[in-house]
Amino acid sequence: METLKGSALVAQGDDAASAIVIDLLHKHNVTHILAWDFAHIPVADLETKLHEAGITITFPNTHEARSPDTMQWYGSAGAGITGADAAIAATGTLVLSASAGKGRIPTVLPPVWISIINSEQIFARLEEWLAHERTQGLTTIQERSNLVFVTGPSRTGDIEMQLILGVHGPGTQYVVIKQ
Q1: Under a CB-based contact definition with an 8 Å cutoff, are residues 140 and 130 in contact?
Q2: By Cβ atoms counted within 10 A, which residue in 8, 74, 102, 162 is the most buried?
Q3: Beta bridge partners of residue 115, listed in sequence order
Q4: What SS3 class is residue 133?
Q5: What is residue 60's DSSP assignment?
Q6: Residues 117-176 pLDDT 10s
Q7: How far apart are CA 173 and CA 113, in angstroms?
């Protein structure tokens, strides 16, 4: 993940994962985040701990009217916090599926993205994850409106052939791995 300009951090349990997330938010001076529904983020009491740390949480609703005020509010968020469906170790890739409470906005709009996964969600290769999905009836693939593979923070190399991070999405990406 570091080769791709992202950072992976290991946490021993829920309290450690919450502490890492809050430390990252403080490091980036973030007081407002966009987040998935916390039912899809594998850390108990994270929402409460974020509130206690003075973090304002917005749950983007893609079905509401997108007024300029709403979009400005979303754009003021300094970070996005999500879970993931899986992580592919060989490529440093996160697998994300969109569904109720798991929209794409927190993963693409803020400059910092923090994804939290359990260590059991890590698969050595994409083929291993696909084999696992077959044993589960392919629900992640067949029952979701969108399936995305994200490998590292947003990047482009089309400006004078220099790699620039964060042009079309978050320039900083963290994956917190909860054990």
Answers
A1: no
A2: 102
A3: 82, 175
A4: helix
A5: -
A6: 999 999 999 999 989 989 988 877 777 778 888 886 655 556 666 656 555 668 899 999
A7: 5
- Using CA atoms of 42, 115, 105, 49 in order, give the dihedral in degrees to the nearest 10: 60
The answer to whether 61 touches 101, Cβ cutoff 8 Å, is no
Task: Give the start-to-end residue ranges of the domains of the chain.
Answer: 2-178
Q: 6-50: per-residue pLDDT in tens?
A: 789 999 999 999 999 999 999 999 999 999 999 999 999 999 999
At residue 79, the 3 state secondary structure works out as: strand
Signed CA dihedral, 150, 20, 38, 120: sign only: positive
CATH of 2-178 given 3.40.50.10420, 3.40.50.620, 1.10.357.140, 3.30.300.20: 3.40.50.10420
* Chain centre to alpha carbon of residue 19: 17
